[in-house]
Input
Amino acid sequence: MEVLKVVHVDKNYRMKEKIIEAVKDVTMEFETGKIYVITGHSGSGKSTFLRILGLLTGSDSGNVIIDKIDTKNLRDSKKADIRNQKVGFVFQNYLLNNHLKAYENVMIPMYINKCIPANTRKERAKNLLKMVGLSERVNHFPNQLSGGEQQRVAIARALANDPKIILADEPTGNLDKKSEKKILDIFLDLKAMGKCIIIVTHNEHIRTYADQVYEMSDGEIKVVAHENKRSS
Output
């Protein structure tokens, strides 16, 4: 089922006297229960495109439609509500608060979600950490965790408000092979739960986990024929 759609999206940046076309007239659809991988060299526009999908960056033209809601003319506050409720983010550098325990980091998105009662937040956070295999680490601070464990906390945090869409920017970029596999296996589990997962990466190996692979170059996206061999 379609959960995210972009229609004729463009994004340009000005650098001194030069216009950089980061995203060029992209139209795409994304469905629930699938993993999408977008590859491309550094500067190809893939991270900018991911930020546009998650309403973190506005496009110069075109429409971003999330769960049948066209966000083009919405106020920033309404976009923030949609982003908080329907999209979870996973970044290469984890972006955890080092002064908070693992479960407290996971709770952060819940504080601005009125649908989650305050007295259920802690238990919900612990259950999400259990789901990503960190039930023994709920009271640990980020500096007490390995890189792979920190990224699993970040994934649990991305799931805090039960979003339909997970956007991941180089989610295994700082990890060893063993930790990378754990993260990618979690993404397969999330796919089986009906999440739409969109990953941008330089890592060619991640292609083998995708239902569909795209390549981005100079702001343009093309489909790469691919058959997923790892469906859960």
Observations:
- The longest helix spans residues 177-192.
- The beta strands are 2-15, 18-31, 34-39, 61-66, 69-70, 87-91, 165-169, 196-201, 212-217, 220-224.
- The chain has a mean pLDDT of 94.
- The chain is about 30% helix and 30% strand.
